[in-house]
Write a structure and sequence with these properties.
The chain is mostly helical. The protein is built from three helices and no strands. The longest helix has 118 residues, at 34-151.
Length: 170
């Protein structure tokens, strides 16, 4: 315990003067308000750090809210895309059914048109055959009549056949 040593309090002792200088330095520092100044600087830095932490927490909350909104919008977009796909598939099936119906209707019309044309062609062919047969029969009758007039002979069977030609052709 050097504090109780009487040699310590001797004015020629340099350690005494170092202790007095140190004590005076601490008194001046306390009187000048250095501890309050240091505390104020530390409090300012603590407040700045706290405000930065609060800002970071606010930004994180905003980011989480934005992420939740984006996830919600993504889910809504996926649901809308699924609905659109289902609607497109339904439209495609409907269009397929309508196209089949139109194709069947077109085929039926074309078949009916072809049948009408065939019937017209048959009627025209029958008319042409009848006309050709009538012309041939008329020429044959003309030749027979010319030959009969030349020979003045009558053939009762030929006369009966000529009489029936007119009624059969019409």
């Amino acid at each position: 315990m050097e504090f109780f040593n009487p040699h310590l309090y001797d004015l020629s002792n340099p350690e005494l003067w170092v202790a007095i200088g140190l004590i005076l330095f601490f008194v001046i520092v306390v009187v000048a308000g250095v501890p309050k100044l240091i505390a104020g600087v530390l409090d300012g830095k603590a407040a700045k750090i706290q405000s930065e932490l609060d800002e970071a927490a606010r930004l994180r909350a905003e980011a989480e809210a934005l992420l939740a909104q984006i996830r919600l919008e993504k889910a809504e977009a996926e649901a809308q895309a699924a609905d659109m796909l289902a609607a497109a598939e339904a439209d495609a099936r409907l269009m397929e059914v309508e196209a089949k119906a139109r194709l069947e209707e077109t085929l039926a019309r074309r078949q009916a048109l072809a049948e009408r044309r065939i019937a017209q062609a048959e009627v025209q062919a029958v008319a042409e055959v009848k006309t050709a047969a009538a012309d041939l029969a008329a020429r044959a009758a003309e030749q027979i009549l010319a030959a009969r007039l030349a020979g003045q002979k009558t053939d009762p069977l030929l006369d009966a056949a000529i009489g029936q030609i007119g009624s059969r052709l019409n």
